[in-house]
Amino acid sequence: MGTRRAYTDPAHAPFDQKRKWVRWTKAMRETFLDHLAATCNVRESAAVIGVIPGSVYALRRREPRFAAQWDEALALGYQMLETLAVGHVLAGGGIKDKLTAGVDPTAGPIDLEAAFRLLTVHRNAPGKPRRNRGPVFAEPEQTDQVLLAKLKQIEARRMRDAAAAPGPAPARSDPRPPANGPEPA
């Protein structure tokens, strides 16, 4: 974890403010990520742990693991927002109604039209982690290595079988010389 310099001014003053050293604890990270997953609001989530948004963005840039957890928390938040919006519509709520079910009352109601626009933009965002990306194909070099290794195994098995069998060795059907050198005469 370690000690990092972070902005802690509640007024969120710009760059001329003094920085204080803040120890990023596991509890701070978990609280921030939990609140981010619940609200999708970075500013509010940073305020909950007592730092300004610039501090958490800096931590996100510095630590890839925290950035991955951040992305996962936002994905969970968007899923929660989508679930609330669909539940509201299925319960008979209209698009012009405000979404209040399951939302923190201190945050105020959610504009359903804005929520759907946000979800549409988020769904098509580039670089967003996706669950079903489809098949992952191997590089040609990897497949070549696997195939050559398999061919070597087959050739070694043929040589073992030929050495174990009594009588003359069977002729090779492959016109290429074996990978381990020319055949003995």
Kindly describe this structure.
The chain is mainly α and 185 residues long. It is 52% helix and 6% strand. A two-stranded antiparallel ribbon has the order 1-2. Strands 3-4 form a two-stranded antiparallel ribbon.
Q: Mind summarizing the main beta sheet?
A: 2 strands, antiparallel
Secondary structure: number of strands:
4
The average pLDDT value, as a whole number, equals: 75
Sheet-strand content, in percent, reads 5-15%
N-to-C span:
68 Å
| Helix content class | 40-55%
Oligomer: single chain
Any low-confidence stretches, pLDDT <50, length ≥5? none
Structural class: mainly alpha
Spatially, the strands of the biggest sheet line up as 1-2
Assign an overall shape: elongated
Number of helices: 6
Cα-based radius of gyration, to the nearest Å: 30 Å
H/E order of the elements?
A: EEHHHHEEHH
List the keywords.
185 residues, mainly alpha, two-stranded antiparallel sheet, 6 helices, elongated, single chain
